[in-house]
């Protein structure tokens, strides 16, 4: 059977990572088409040693396409993903457009691969911060239900796209040269700074990003009772997000039990030797497939033994976006 894959948003940071990931994982395909806005149409991309010309995305782009990987923003997905699905393609969408649609599976393959089977043409890729978190928390939740999760994120510039990474570099260079830092992509200077503001603020005081972590976790865990509270912070890191996670379990547990579970869980690497200065860092996680987990310790503020602290780092562009989507496609 011939497989024709389309990558929508091929020129963006995640689109470029789609291309790398498909190549590196030797994804089985016979033909590939790259689609983007009219501004990018005509540009060249190289895939498996062959140069391809990017085509303009139109309503007629999906004839003969079997699999469509979308990473071109929510409005593009809203318009074109249903068209792709109606044309017979299976869509894996990286935007937030369909994540909370009850008819659309929201999937992290290490967590809920079985949900893929009920798709009706569209499968949603979760938010990057949620993906990185649930890869670490899900195996623990399966063994001993998590009642409450409090997470603080340390999110890299990459989460805001390629131009945000460029802005971090340009600001850092300008400041080091004694010049004024130009602020465009972010609400504040990001170089040598951080701010607790990722996405728009909502009426409840949380941001959209923070509520994504709440609602997406509940959907993938099939557990509306799990309590989740998030504070999302943008930090002066180019690539890879980190998160400090505080868990309250149904039953008492120990760091040793947690390590045993995480040591055999898919998609994770334990980096937890504090005495040797070994713990997860975004620099080490960058360009890697696995989520790094460490600083595993008992929460001293929960004297009943039900609390555990973790620190994780994962590549936002890779496992937080492109890799997760390609893993979904592999299962499809």
Question: Can you walk through the features of this model?
Answer:
- With 332 residues, the chain is of the alpha/beta class.
- The protein has 2 domains: 4-125 and 322-331, NAD(P)-binding Rossmann-like Domain (Rossmann fold), CATH 3.40.50.720; 130-316, Dihydrodipicolinate Reductase, domain 2, CATH 3.30.360.
- It has helices at residues 13-24, 74-86, 128-143, 162-176, 208-221, 255-263, 282-285, 318-331, and strands spanning 4-8, 31-36, 44-47, 50-53, 55-56, 67-70, 90-93, 122-124, 146-155, 194-195, 227-235, 241-249, 268-270, 291-298, 307-314.
- The strands form 3 sheets. Strands 10-11-9-12-15-14-13 form a 7-stranded mixed sheet.
- Strand 13 (268-270), helix 7 (282-285) and strand 14 form a beta-alpha-beta unit.
- Helix 3 (128-143) runs parallel beside helix 5 (208-221).
- The protein is globular, with a radius of gyration of 20 Å.
- The two termini are 14 Å apart.
């Amino acid at each position: 059977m011939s497989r024709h894959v389309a990558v929508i948003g091929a020129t963006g940071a995640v689109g470029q990572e789609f291309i790398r990931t498909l190549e590196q994982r030797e994804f089985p395909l016979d033909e590939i088409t790259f689609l983007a806005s009219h501004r990018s149409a005509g540009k060249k991309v190289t895939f498996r040693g062959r140069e391809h010309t990017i085509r303009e995305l139109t309503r007629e782009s999906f004839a003969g396409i079997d699999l469509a990987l979308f990473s071109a923003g929510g409005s593009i997905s809203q318009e074109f993903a249903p068209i792709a699905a109606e044309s017979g393609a299976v869509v894996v969408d990286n935007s937030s457009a369909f994540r909370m649609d009850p008819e659309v599976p929201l999937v992290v393959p290490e967590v809920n691969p079985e949900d893929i089977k009920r798709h009706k043409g569209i499968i949603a890729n979760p938010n990057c911060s949620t993906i990185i978190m649930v890869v670490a928390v899900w195996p623990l939740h399966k063994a001993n239900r998590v009642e409450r999760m409090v997470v603080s994120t340390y999110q890299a510039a990459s989460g805001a796209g390629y131009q945000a990474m460029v802005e971090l570099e340009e600001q850092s260079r300008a400041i080091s040269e004694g010049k004024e830092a130009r602020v465009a992509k972010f609400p504040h200077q990001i170089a040598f700074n951080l701010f607790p503001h990722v996405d728009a603020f909502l009426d409840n005081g949380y941001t959209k990003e923070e509520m994504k972590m709440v609602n997406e976790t509940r959907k993938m865990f099939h557990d509306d009772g799990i309590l989740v509270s998030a504070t999302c912070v943008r930090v002066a890191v180019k690539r890879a997000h980190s998160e400090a996670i505080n868990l309250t379990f149904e039953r008492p547990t120990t760091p040793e039990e947690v390590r045993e579970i995480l040591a055999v869980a898919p998609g994770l690497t334990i980096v937890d030797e504090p005495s040797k200065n070994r713990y997860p860092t975004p620099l080490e996680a960058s360009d890697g497939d696995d989520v790094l987990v460490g600083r595993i310790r008992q929460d001293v503020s929960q004297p009943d033994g039900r609390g555990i602290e973790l620190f994780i780092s994962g590549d936002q562009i890779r496992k937080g976006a492109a890799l997760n989507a390609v893993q979904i496609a592999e299962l499809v």
